[in-house]
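[INFO] parsing input record for LLM class flavin-dependent oxidoreductase
[DEBUG] input buffer:
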Amino acid sequence: MTAKPFRLGFFTHANTASPPAEANEELIRLFVGAEELGYDIGFLAQHLLVRPELGSAPSPLVSFAPVAVHTHRIGLGVAVVTLPLTEPLQLAQDALTLDAIAGGRLQLGLGTGAANIDKYAAYGVDASDPGKLFDDHLGVLLDALSGRPLRGTDQRIHADGTGLAQRLWRTPGSPESARRAARTGLGALFGTATLDAKTVQRPIIDAYLDEWRTVGPVEAPSEIAPLLTPRLGGIRNIYAGASRAGALDDLNRFLESSRKRIADVRGVSADDLTLDDIIAGVNLKTGSAQDAAEGLRADAALLPEVDYIIAVTGLLEAVEVGRGHRHTVDVALRGLERIARDTAPLLGWTPAT
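[DEBUG] output buffer:
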């Protein structure tokens, strides 16, 4: 059992080979199915200027509108909006509109978009200092949600954004950006597969919690600062099979495809990596349901501090693609069912109703 309850979520890239209308229906079915399984939240990735098979939701807030109508309880998370490429006042208005449709279920992740630096020019944005752009846009967004006058004018948003302001996340990639997230009152969402849990993610978490304990959200608007609390969300690859040997056999194609990427990150030869090196490198928890639960429990960056454990659906789909099958909602839901039914309860999680 964990020291405190956590919420169970999933993270989808919305990979698809389907045409747009069908892709939207697939996203609805994924969230409806996950809600029925008791999941607390689902996070949808933003992919800018990529082919649909790599991610079919360049505008997650728009994609979530029909999902909000067809679901009732599950949280709708965006992971993440590339804030330097986004006009923050328009983002505030769009997010508040979606949050109203969803009945206060939106959780909005924000990032500098390190993976999208090469796309800044297409958006007419200078990529020389994305950190400063992020901070500038975050300031406008927080002012808007707090009901403050905007950009030196007497104009403001005439909607209560204080609820949404308590559900903002940042994806810190360093201890300093984690401290910045704490000072501005944002949650910390982490989980890039190549960031080692012990040597990279643990220091980020420690910095975030230390900054919150030491100074708190001192840079958040005074209207919302007393309402804010620290939040941690860990994204992980989770795959539970009947046995460790069976799970590793299922995952062989995925693990081998990850070998070069992990080797490049570590600066070593791909041939020198062991299977355990690759498993650790992609933050994978696998084996039997008990094995996967033990892996999550032993993860240096998760329990007991983490508030959300978030499973990546892409891994579940990759197993079936390796067997010659297409990315399908049913594939993802079968994997999510195993996690919710067999693994998460071993850590004290109970399905939401």
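[INFO] The two ends are 21 Å apart (CA to CA).
[INFO] shutting down worker
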